[in-house]
Amino acid sequence: MKQALIAAGFVAAAWVGIVTLIRRLYDLDLSGWWLLVTFLQPLFNNFPSLIVQGVGSLFAISWSFYLLFKSGTPGDNRFGPAPVNPANAGQPAPAGSHA
Fold first, then answer.
1. How far is the C-alpha of 94 from the C-alpha of 99, rounded, in Å?
2. For the stretch 37-47, what's the b/e string if a residue is b when 16 or more beta carbons lie within 10 angstroms of its beta carbon?
3. Any alpha helices (H) in the chain, and if so which ranges?
4. CB atoms within 10 A of CB 25
5. CA distance 73 to 43
6. Taking the alpha carbons of 85, 88, 89, 90 in that order, is the dihedral positive or negative?
7. Which of 52, 61, 79, 97 could be bridged to 47 by S-S, CB 3.0 to 4.6 A?
8. Would you list the DSSP string of 57-75?
9. Rounded distance, CA 12 to CA 37, Å?
10. Average pLDDT over residues 16-23
11. How far apart are CA 88 and CA 37, in angstroms?
């Protein structure tokens, strides 16, 4: 029973992480398929060369910093309206919006 609860918690946390990352990619006007780039770094760890592993680690750090600090696209993009519109700050989101 305890293992089932741990597994359910892991699945729930993974789902939330994946959905959050996809929404961040949408904010950057990138497709959700860019999520797969996140899984490239572990592939570099299978190489015996420390240089290749280091390159993989630098790539993972660079990708993480890009996702963390890159400003989202200003205004609306192909995935929908901007989640925060300075003109409407403090007002509730319209019905049917994803904000």
1. 9
2. ebeebeebeee
3. 2-27, 41-44, 50-69
4. 19
5. 30
6. negative
7. 52
8. HHHHHHHHHHHHHSPPPSS
9. 21
10. 92
11. 34
Cβ(40)–Cβ(55) below 8 Å: no
- Per the DSSP assignment, residues forming a β-bridge with 80 are 77
Enter the tokens of residue 21.
């990352």
Structure tokens at 94: 């319209």
Task: Give per-residue pLDDT as tens, 59-83.
Answer: 889 998 999 998 888 878 888 887 6
Residues 6+ apart with CB under 8 A from 28: 67, 70, 72, 73
Residue 27: φ, ψ to 5°: -65, -30
Strand partners, 77: 80
